[in-house]
Amino acid sequence: MTSVKEFRIEDAATDEEFGRGAFVFTDDYSVFDWGKMPDQIPQKGASLCTMGAFNFELLESEGVPTHYRGVVENGDVVALEDASHPPWEMAIDLTQVPDLPHEGREYDYEHYHDAAGENYLIPLEIVFRNRVPVGSSLRDRTEPADHGLDLESWPDEAVDLDEPIVEFTTKYEESDRQLERDEADSIAGKASIGDLESLARKVNRIVTEQADSAGLVHEDGKIECLYYQGDLRVADVVGTFDENRFSYEGTQLSKEVLRQYHKRTQPEWVQAVDAAKATAKRKDVADWKSLCDEEPEPLDDDVLETASDLYRAGANAYTGRDVFDAPPLSSAIGAVQRL
């Protein structure tokens, strides 16, 4: 189980064949790598499942191979447009995910790939950025000139990029870690890092074009991929408000809303999380959460309702379909701005 969706195996994958299984989306949410938070956001799971299925079907129509098989309704696997109600469950092909042993913060990727064979989930996240907002970690790690920008320093406003930036981070380590290209290539195993970058750029283009058609700005996102007998397929879930950052008329339309709300209303907890991660890194300990001496507090009902409206209205706008009974996106965004 992940922090926000359950993972069901029907037939396990082997070295030679995909398995069969499903993601069951829940209304849980996670911020700051905490895992399951104290509350649930009504219909968030169905919103993410709808957007994920829509994007997988869009990618497949553009010739991008994925692990998606359809959404599940009454035990049957159907296309999204054939579902009679917002789906919660997504049928997928399964690949192998071997154990990744570690001592402290040293992870044994050689062991992972020895067990992976020719059919495995690549233990990377491939991140693409179309915009550099204020507060982005990219500003701490790089200068504008590193990306061909004619700026002496990062301004106090978002910066749009002429060409997307593609980066690589770890997936299964206790805390996400930024990777140089050579290390990412090693961690990818038999998968080509160049092919992964090309695939990420294509996915980014398709999602960005769909967002544009809905009046949204696609700021950044990520993909995860599987390797099978020399081929790559897009895995996990793509182009949702949890995987990607979108904005509408200058306001965030993503999980970032909840991150920023916690920063404003529960700064002690956010600071304790940052401190615990720093301590874990200093002590070479993987489990930073056990070092955190604060717990997040539940959110007020009106905040949860606003978040629910945002997910449902955003899914309607992005897909161009009235899947959910939700307010217009402009109304949902207005409520977010008043939080």
Describe the fold and architecture.
- With 339 residues, the protein is of the alpha+beta class.
- It has a single domain, classed as 2-Layer Sandwich (D-amino Acid Aminotransferase, Chain A, domain 1).
- Helix content is 34%, strand content 24%.
- It is built from nine helices and 15 strands.
- It has helices at residues 44-61, 109-116, 137-141, 181-187, 193-213, 256-265, 267-283, 301-319, 329-337, and strands spanning 5-11, 19-25, 68-73, 76-78, 89-94, 102-103, 106-107, 119-121, 124-132, 159-170, 178-179, 217-228, 231-235, 245-248, 251-252.
- The strands form three sheets. Strands 8, 9, 10, 11, 12, 13, 14 and 15 form an eight-stranded antiparallel β-sheet that branches. Strands 1-2-5-3-4 form a five-stranded antiparallel β-sheet, with helices on one face. Strands 6-7 form a two-stranded antiparallel sheet.
- A hairpin with a 2-residue loop joins strand 14 and strand 15 (251-252).
- Helix 1 (44-61) runs parallel beside helix 8 (301-319) and helix 8 runs antiparallel to helix 9.
- The longest helix has 21 residues, at 193-213.
